[in-house]
Automatic annotation (TrEMBL), chain A:
Membrane topology term: Multi-pass membrane protein
Complexes and interactors: NDH-1 is composed of 14 different subunits. Subunits NuoA, H, J, K, L, M, N constitute the membrane sector of the complex.
Family to which this protein belongs: Belongs to the complex I subunit 4L family.
Gene3D superfamilies, per the entry: 1.10.287.3510
EC number: 7.1.1.-
Name the record gives this protein: NADH-quinone oxidoreductase subunit K
Automatic annotation (TrEMBL), chain B:
Any GO molecular function: NADH dehydrogenase (ubiquinone) activity
NCBIfam families assigned: NDH_I_L (TIGR01974), PRK06590.1 (NF005141)
Record organism: Flavobacterium degerlachei
Alphabetically ordered keywords of this record: Membrane, Transmembrane, Transmembrane helix
GO BP annotation list: ATP synthesis coupled electron transport; electron transport coupled proton transport
Name of the protein in its database record: NADH dehydrogenase subunit L
Membrane topology field: Multi-pass membrane protein
Location in the cell: Endomembrane system; Membrane
Major location category of this protein: membrane
Gene3D superfamilies noted in UniProt: 1.20.5.2700
Amino acid sequence: MNNILNEIGIENYIFLSVILFCIGVFGVLYRRNAIIVFMSIEIMLNAVNLLFVAFSTYHQDAQGQIFVFFSMAVAAAEVAVGLAILVSIFRNLGSIDINNLKNLKG
Amino acid sequence: MNTNLALLLLLAPFIGFLFNIFFGKSIGKTASGVIGTLMIVVSFIVTLYFFGAITAKPEGIHISLFDWIQISNFKVDFGFQFDQLSVLWLLFVTGIGSLIHMYSISYMHDDENMHKYFAYLNLFIFFMITLVIGSNLLVLFIGWEGVGLCSYLLIGFWHKNQEFNDAAKKAFIMNRIGDLGLLIGIFIIGSLFSTLDYATLKTAIAGATDLNMYWISAAAFALFIGACGKSAQIPLYTWLPDAMAGPTPVSALIHAATMVTAGIFMITRLNYLFDLAPDVQNIIAIVGAVTSLVAATIALVQTDIKKVLAYSTVSQLGLMFLALGLGAYEVAVFHVITHAFFKACLFLGSGSVIHALHGEQDMRKMGGLKKVMTITFVTFLISSLAISGIPPFSGFFSKDEILMVAFEHNKILWFIASLASLMTAFYMFRLLYLTFFKEFRGTAEQKSHLHESPTLITFPLIVLAILATLGGLISLPTNSWLNEYLAPLFTKVATEEHHFGTSEYMLMLVAVIGGLVGIGIAYSKYIKQNLVPEEDEKITGFAKVLYNKYYVDEIYDSLFVKSINGLSKFFRDNVETTLSSLVFGLGKVTNEIGFQGKKLQSGSIGFYLFAFVLGICAIITYLFLAQ
């Protein structure tokens, strides 16, 4: 069987996924631009998707890949809603810097 | 036909109530009174019809209006039962009720709230009819509570006087204590037999083989407590003398002739139940005898004309309970009827006197009224003779039967009852002599206004005096129409015939002599020696104890009112402060947590996200460590 995992080991996928995830996390924590924060979240999502697919192949089980489709569909919907919210915020405040969004201060 | 007539009987007073409460003020005092009276007369006429119907059909008429409560096999229908007992009660409730309504038109004429008075009085008759004709205990209970309410409203009718309000509240609360007993009794019966209907209950008890005697006694005792409250027996009698705060016709109607006999009605109604509980019957007899004696002793020294009559009522009710306790239900009913006649007449007569004296109730300030108020005097004299048990007046026959029954069962009870009867004769004639004989002791101004009361007042007096004279005919010792009439109600196999021998005649003679002795003592004291009761502060010794009613009110006050007040104070000062500080403490803690926690809500999204990530890291770490 011509399995791609034979050429690149599973552990590399795991490392890549973890690295992507951490990039996402740090992106969320350090960036102030709401769109970049958003992109970071997408990176985290995709890191997880990658792991799903890798293990799916590793276990010779299609379930993981099927799950990824759902995950991507949900992510797309989330992006649509999230971006709409960002557009609305921009129209109201003239900026999408998350430091300015302090209306809910206790 | 019967259903419609029953509804007419019941609703006529209710319509009178509605009319008087809404339109009474605008149509004028007399008109409002006349309408109130006519409504009761309508009820009386319908009652006469039912009286005829029952005579023709001794097994009674049962009318079921609708199913009221139905829970699995427990069913209560809203129905009426016309039989000998309820019709008898209806006769004197509506009959005497009409007379007293008529009397009130004149008596209450100077009162600005006369329409309200008649509304309440009509409402009272409505509830009393409900109580009497209900076919089960729950309908009886509606009437029972309703008459209590009307009693409260009418005692406190002159509500600008705080003492009268207190008397009304006292009557209501005392009655509530009794009502609780009645309710408990009803619950026990309901759970024992799954029915509250008199007829069903009777067959259930007659057919049952394994009755739980313990619970039946408990039910009978609880019902007796209820009767004690309503019919003013020891220990719940103190409200009745205070109830004299109400207008005098009210005292005559509610607190002498009708409502206070409700307890006797209920016990007679459930005679088959009480027959099964001899212990409770003994208690009833003893309570009745003791009440009659205690109340009679208090009445000996009272100076308020209505108070004397009130204690006399308590005493007579005691005699009725004595008869009930001895299983002589028909005798108790007989005394209820004659008592309704002569006591209503006495109260109305005292009302006539009070009316003539413009509200004076102290006998020490009366006297000599015989010359001016001849009709009142004659009717009063007849009723006094009747209550003292002097033949041939009605009271002689009924009281004599009670004494005879008591003698058969227990000599001590007989002695107590005889003593009470002797005292009755004494205090009634003391009242009569002080009020109507000798010289007038009031002010000169009162004297110039003395007058005989108008016809509207004297007519009921005359009718009641005639009834008080002839009432005994319904149950002559050897040939008792009443006993035969009531026979279908009782489970006993026919009332044992009084074989009339020497001992019976001796007893009769003793009773009459007792009455005459009482009258004689009163005569020698208040006519021969010309005594007048002393001023309040000069009364000493045992008379003072009697005058202050054995200090029972004070004892109740310190025993119950004070202790409950103390308990309330304890709860308010200790328990409530503890509880509230606990609750307040919780509130304060929550508030403080919120106040501190609010600082976390900095509004900085970066911080939130950081906390978010940190939290997830913590959870993951925990999950790893947990494995």
